[in-house]
Design a protein that fits this description.
The chain has about 120 residues and is an alpha+beta fold. It contains four helices and five strands; from the N terminus they run ααβββαββα. Helices cover about 30% and strands about 25% of the residues.
């Protein structure tokens, strides 16, 4: 089962910064990806992690019908808690479609419902 409470420990966290990615962010990133992977498994989707950035990440999710969604979180050092409160999500044609459909934003707790709604738009 997805462990949202493990991610919620990072709410209001001041992430390290510098030319190398800090261990606090690397731990957070692993937990975030594991949460997304578990969420996808629970819903019959597949997580296609595309980019693990310096202090951000983006990914594609594919459903059983082959439809794709793109999601992204902003740099966690400068936009505190946006990784939780304001996740960019939109439809995509394929797993390299970074332009995709119209931008939508969702809360991490509402991500499954938002993804279901967007998958229904295909």
């Amino acid at each position: 089962m997805a462990k949202l409470h493990e991610l919620e420990k990072y709410l209001n966290h001041d992430f390290s910064t510098g030319c190398y990615t800090g261990e606090d962010y690397l731990s957070f990133q692993r937990k975030y990806i594991n949460y997304l992977r578990a969420l996808c498994k629970e819903n019959g989707w597949e997580l296609l992690v595309s980019s693990k950035g310096h202090y951000w990440l983006s990914a594609f999710i594919r459903n059983g019908a082959g439809n794709h969604l793109y999601l992204s979180i902003s740099d966690v050092r400068y936009w505190k808690n946006e990784w939780y409160n304001r996740i960019l999500i939109r439809t995509a044609s394929h797993e390299k479609d970074y332009h995709g459909g119209r931008n939508n934003y969702t809360h991490l707790r509402e991500l499954p419902q938002t993804a279901q709604r967007l998958f229904g738009a295909f």
